Every structure is written in C-alpha cells, then in structure tokens.
Amino acid sequence: MIDFDTLSERMSRQTVLCIGDLMLDEFVYGEVSRVSPEAPAPVIAAQRSEFNIGGAGNVARNIAALGGRCIFVGLIGEDAAGATLKSELAKDAAIEAHLVVDASRPTTRKVRFVSEHYATHMLRADWEVAQAASPQTETTLIAAIKEALPRADIVLLSDYAKGVLTHRVIRETIDAARQMGKRVIVDPKNLNFAVYHGASILTPNRKEFTEATRSRARTPEEIGVAARDAIATAGCEAMLVTQSENGMTLVAKNGDVLHVPAYPVKVRDVSGAGDTVAAALALALASGVAEEDAVRAASAAAAVAVGKRGTASVTQAELRKKILPHAVLTMEEKIVPDWKDIDARLDDWRREGLRIGFTNGCFDILHPGHVRVLTQARATCDRLVVGLNSDDSVRRLKGESRPVQSELARAEVLAALEAVDLVVIFGEDTPLELIRQVKPSVLVKGGDYTREQVVGHEFVTAHGGEVVLIDILPGHSTTSLVNRARSNQP
Fold this sequence. Notes:
ATP binds at residues 205-208. The chain is α/β, with parallel strands linked by helices. The protein has 18 helices and 19 strands. The strands form 3 sheets. Strands 5-4-1-8-9-10-11-12-13 form a 9-stranded mixed sheet, with helices on both faces.
C-alpha cells in the first residue's frame, strides 16, 4: 500500500476530464407537526433550504476537494437553475467548466423535502427532460471534450441517463481517449454495458450490476463469475461493483477478484456516494497507484461521504483522517489529563469494531526500548491507549528526584508518536482502575515482566482479552540514563 502522503501529493498533480449529467440538488428542511386539512398529507413548515451541485457536478466537486483539478463538460438549460449551477461551479478555481446551453430543455433540478426533527426524507420533486441531447448539442459537447482531452490525465464518464452521454458522445469520447493512451472510468447507468465498449473500468452498484448481468450475485465469488461475460461485453480491463455496507469487489479481465470490506461507519445519507467513489478512483489511478490501492482509497472516501447529510464532497484531509485516523490528531487531542473522560472516544472505537490495546509506564526519558514496546504494541491492535503515571505517582514509585520531565512534557512526547492513539494520565500507583475503564482487547507490557506480574492481566483475560509481552532491548533503561547523566558518565 502506497503511503498516504505520497498518494495525496500525486493526486494534487492530476487533471480529470469529467463528462456527465449536471443537476441542481435542493434540500428543504422543516418541521412536520400536522396533516393537511385538504388531503391526507403531512405539512412541512419549511425553515431553511440548501443548494448543492449534484449529478456529475458532484463528481467534479469531489475531484477538486480531493486535491485534483477537474475539466467538466456538461449541459444546462437557459433558466435560473442553470445560471445557479454555472455560478457555483465558477467559485471553485480547481474546476474548469464547459457548460453547453440548450434552451429547449430545462436544467435538471431535484428538490428534496426533509423533516428536520425525524431526519426523514419525505418527498422529492424533479424538473427534468430525460432524453438524449439533440444532434447539434452532441456536436458541441464532443468538440468541447476533444479540445480538453490533451490536458487530461484520465477521463471519467458520469452517466445519470439525463441525455448528455448519448451513444455518439460516449463512443467518440472513449475512442479519442484510447487513441491518446488515456484511461476511461465509467459510472454507468445504461444496463447494456456494450455501450461503454473500450472503457478501462466500469463502476456499477450491485443493483445495476445484477440487472445488467441478469444474476443474483452477492458474494465476491459470485460477482467474479457473473462479471466475466460483462467484462467481455464491455471490452473493459476491470469492473468495480460497489455494494454499500458490503464493500466493493474488483474483478479483473483475467478473472482475479479483489474484495475490499466497507469501513464501519454510521450512515447518514448515501446520496452521492457513487460520485465520491468514481472521483477518488479516477484520481488515484491517474496518480499511477495499483488498482488495489485505488479501490481502498475509494472505499475510504465513500465511508466519509455516507457519514454526511446531502450530496457531499470529501476533502483530502477527511480522507486522510479515515485512512490514518491516529496520525491526524494533534497532540492536544491525544492527551487526556483525567482518565474518567475517555468514554466517548472509547465508545466511538468500539462502535467501529476496532481492537483496543493498552500499555502503561512512566516514560520519563523516552528511549529506543520504549519506542520498540510502543510500536510493537500498536501492531497488536487498531488503537493503542497509553497509561502515563502522573508526577506524583512517579515520585512515589521512583523517589523524590523523579520524574526528570513533567507529566505534560512526557505526554506530549508520547502523543507525537504515530503508534500512540491516546495518552491517559493516571495518578494511582497502578493502572488497574484505568484498565477496567478501558476494557482493552489486548494488554501489552515489556518482556522484563512475567504474565502474572502484569497489572490487570486477570481482568483482561476474564473479559476475553489477551496479554502480550514484548521483548525489550537490552541496555536501555531510563534509570541508568538518569544515573549516568547525573554522574557525568558518557
């Protein structure tokens, strides 16, 4: 797996040519407290509304938010919704929009009415003409696409079946891209995958995939079998089937199957998650990473998107936090002065199904022996909590001349380590009460202890956890370092 900093730096240098159906998403939020006297229908007292760039425009927004540059080609009507979309896209310097205006059709607009109190999507009203663009409009779209192609690193077709991606537009775009050696990613809507023949990767969701292949495939193995004929029909390199909470399955032309589980996350709204997947996948592939790494990045981006309300975009910082949650916390966020305040953080980790580890110590002068224990402790779990003796606790254990550094200084040094997710200061002589609070799945200590000498081992094992002893590095001791420094020994 490529490291995230390298991936993000590469993504920021990529340009994606995105072509597809643009729409204006409006969300009207209000309270519902009564039924209309005119008909058996709820009445929503509208309180606020939000406008978002939707459809393929949301793909463009995600490309920009993830650090890339997007050249967008789409279609609008000569109306207020079209003017709003043009104005909103112009606000993002990372999006270069080429919007063809067709006065004979309205800009696609979708208004969703949402009960604020119940967080319930009650009704959606659509303004659209879902029919193929006219031959004249097709010609204008194709000219804009071919003019932009030389400046793009990859091409992304976002098909919402509203009329932009006609057979002619699709065919000329894919053929021109292949002649220039550029990959084409397609988020399809047409269930005849042959329409997209020659594309590099198709990204149908499971419903689209099962309908197109006329199968009931659910498991990665079944999807792999069903995808073989579909890949041959589409003449593509691979097919990525997205399955919401069941993750994503990538099937290669040679039959290899890769399944990436979904990140555990509280789902607020799945609107636009497919857009996020397509944007992240295209940017990652354009960056030159392996398909497996690109799919994992797309999965992480989707997990962020579904945790937001409405048609949401995902930033590079949010993607980093999902992939490397322990690395983005500041030292202040990692340090908890009172161990009684850690429940909220622990509850979040437990809800995500993460394995929590625990170790403890004074860590007065951090040395290679400490680092070895901490890094190997982190390897045994998903999140590592470090119990740190307070100054008073250290004095009782080590004498009045210790600690050399204050508890805050020691905590900051520990928090700066990527292996450490949480530093909790405790004032007791032993961390037993803290261990009972954390309820770790794994309790880690240096190999200079026996299993029976590890404080908390009985509690942890009784609750289904395990005790792990890490081999220590000989010759490294805080006490010996302090003694040598005070006696001026080298």
